[in-house]
Each structure stands twice: as structure tokens, then as C-alpha cells.
Amino acid sequence: MDSETKAIFLDMDGTILNHYNKVTNRTKEIIDKLRTEGLLVFIATGRSIEEIEGVVPEGFQVDGLITSNGMAGYVGEKVVFEHSLSRKLVETIIDKARENKVYYELFPYGFSRITLSQDRQFVIDEITDPKPESVGINEWLSRKQAIKGEIDWVESIVGEKFSKFYFFARTKEKINRWIDELDKLKGEMDFTTSTSSLHNVEVMVANVNKATGIKQMLNRFNVSHEKTLAIGDSNNDIQMLKFVHHSVAMKNAPDLIKDLADDVTEYTCDEDGVCHYLKQRFFNN
């Protein structure tokens, strides 16, 4: 058993989640076993806290959650840290998304994700069948589910504290044009962008990412950096994988992620790759 690691940080989409947006019972069981052995296991995800419950098995438990790419951290129901996008930034970005007809979801703390009703048609148009070949089935199903019942279509912005924006486009050309627009806006307003596929981009507070969230969680549990391990698969995991002591890329990750990691799983997210890797590393005897 690996006796050096004390804290494990797991990405969700493309890592412990398969491409149909589910965490298997086998993965839950290995997490339970690790925690029984005294290891700390955390989720470090781009998802908001409200997006997690519906994709994990009943009884799924970890020691803490780092959500929205480091924007918030939770231990049980207690908020460990929380950052918020400014109201001015939110309003400015929504106006620009409307000008460019870009699909968006805004995530206020304590409320359902929202999209303004006046933007409903071009948002729905973006996820009209057929699915583009280059869009992952997991992301397409998530957008379909969001449109079906998870987005709250509102007349005006709800809430005063916001964890992130999520943007999607059915073509890589359109999302890249939108990323260019956001980069231009960074010259006027301070914020961070992150991608987890070739068809999306998310907006968070400046200089916030999964690594900053991990630092705050390690402080909370008094664990040193030298005792950390993380597993991820995409660009929004880069800072996390660079920060931890031992970094692991999924077999299904792009070469960019595999090249910066210390290790690569033998199996993909659809083959319970995390479960197999953790079982081999910690319980190989």
C-alpha cells in the first residue's frame, strides 16, 4: 500500500464519471475503502455543488468537495471557502454572450443555474439534434438535461453571489471565437477562464482554479503538499496536476495532460479507470 499519500483529489467528468455521467458503485466502494484505511478523499470538479448529487451513487461520501474549478469548498454542509463573480462582470458577460448568441448558464450560489428568458431561443438552438460528431456524448447529454429541467429561465439576474459561468458551442470555431472575445474582455475586467472540452469554456474569479482550492483544503485538514495525489483528464485539471506531489492522467485524457502527469491509468473512465488505479496503488497486496 502507498504509505506516502494522505490526501487524494479526484476530478469528475472524464475521470470518476463515465461518458454517460455516472459514478459506478465500484468507484464508490474503492473510495469507501480508502477512507476506512484513513486516507482523505476529495472531489475537485468544475461542477457546482448542485450538479454532483444526481451523478453519484446513493451513499456516496468523500471528505470534502472543491467545486466550480476552485470557486468553493465544502466539508459536509460547511462552507470552507467561497469566491464570487461580481455583479458587474456577470452583467457585462451576459450582454456580450447575447451579442454573439453564445449558449450560457450562470450559477448563483443557493439557486438553480439560470439563463435569461430573452436568450432562450439561441441557447436551445445550440443543442438541437443531431449531435455534432466532435461533441462528447457526456457534454451533449448534460446540455440536454439542463435545457429539459435544470436551467431556471428568468426575466432578470437572480442572486448576488455567483460561482461560475458555463458556455457551450456546437462548433469548435464558435467557441474559439467566444474565447477570443473573453480574452479581449480580460483587458478591461479581471477574471479566469478554463476549458474542459473542445466545445466549452467557463469563467471564474481571477487566479482561482482547482490548485488554489486544494491549497485551502490542505490547510483545513493540516496535510502537507508532499502527501497529495490527484487524478484528472482535461485542461481545467492542469493547475491541479502541476501542484500535487503525484499527478495521474486518465487513459482517455489528451496527450497534453498525459505528458505533464507522473502516471497514466491503464483504463479509461468508461472502464472504471480510477477504481483500477487506486486499487492497484493502494491495495495491490
Describe the model.
It contains 9 helices and 14 strands. The protein has 285 residues and is an alpha/beta fold. The protein folds into 2 domains: 7-83 and 209-283, Rossmann fold (3-Layer(aba) Sandwich), CATH 3.40.50; 87-205, Hypothetical Protein, Haloacid Dehalogenase-like Hydrolase, Chain: A, domain 2, CATH 3.30.1240. Helix 1 packs parallel to helix 9 (273-283).
What are the SSEs and their pairings?
Layout: E1 7-10, H1 25-36, E2 40-44, E3 64-67, E4 72-75, E5 78-82, H2 87-100, E6 103-108, E7 114-116, H3 120-125, H4 137-150, E8 152-154, E9 162-168, H5 172-185, E10 191-194, E11 200-205, H6 210-221, E12 228-232, H7 238-243, E13 246-249, H8 255-260, E14 263-264, H9 273-283
Parallel strand pairs: 1-2, 1-12, 2-3, 7-8, 12-13, 13-14
Antiparallel strand pairs: 3-4, 4-5, 6-9, 9-11, 10-11
Helix pairs in contact: 1-9
Summarize this entry quickly.
The protein has 285 residues and is α/β, with parallel strands linked by helices.
Main CATH class of the largest domain: Alpha Beta
Structural class of the secondary structure composition? alpha/beta
Residues in helix, %:
25-40%
Return the string of H and E elements: EHEEEEHEEHHEEHEEHEHEHEH
The CATH homologous superfamily of the largest domain is called HAD superfamily/HAD-like
**Counting H and I runs of at least 4 residues, what is the number of helices?**
9
Overall number of domains: 2
